[in-house]
């Protein structure tokens, strides 16, 4: 497939800090691509360079076959950008916000209602933006980025600080954007979000890409044991430890958890003891991959 975005040897320094340090990757047409990393990993700086908001110190960036820097008037109508913090015009309603943003691109005023429906805000069309909830404001921000029908959409931590319900609602919006054939680039530090939404992810830390690939492939490449849990009391810890294939067993008073690299043997042994009621099997996740390559220390 054609590459919509190509990034080669990208670098950006602030004094002694290497915010982006030799980043190289490509995003295919129609792909949902995630950039993951802890705070300070450089993902937002990299995204802003690709969007044309910052000038790189070194490297090359191509978006839809064009360089985004210096600001390229031919490229701007073809990309949509949702920043970490969005500012709206005061006292305008949701519909008026979209009509105003759309007018900058020559979009008919009637397109606003179509976009409000797409992001599930059609019932908030006449509500001033100051009265929208955090999740509603985020959805409106995404609608503003899409109102001119861009080919490529950049989303910088769109679900940050949202409650679980608002996050899930926004995921539905992002899936619909992807289904429409747009290329989407997302930065996030929510691993479950990336695992659900993204075709491929790049895990960044200290300005560098440490892992790159489909989430499922990265998870399968992690040499991590499975965890099998059953209700506490179904087996003793000693009996669980003696199961074929069991590496470790622990009981916290709620669940008995067996760690194993041979889950099929453990499950078969638990079934033979008629103790399968309430069984849960937990394999490795993208979060496990993330923690393995970025470490577990606290990031401010």
From TrEMBL:
It comes from Actinomadura hallensis. PANTHER family: ABC TRANSPORTER ATP-BINDING PROTEIN, ABC TRANSPORTER ATP-BINDING PROTEIN NATA. The keyword Cell membrane applies. It comes from the Bacteria. Coiled coil: none annotated. It is found in: Cell membrane. This is ABC-2 type transport system ATP-binding protein. PROSITE patterns: ABC_TRANSPORTER_1, ABC_TRANSPORTER_2. Its main location: membrane.
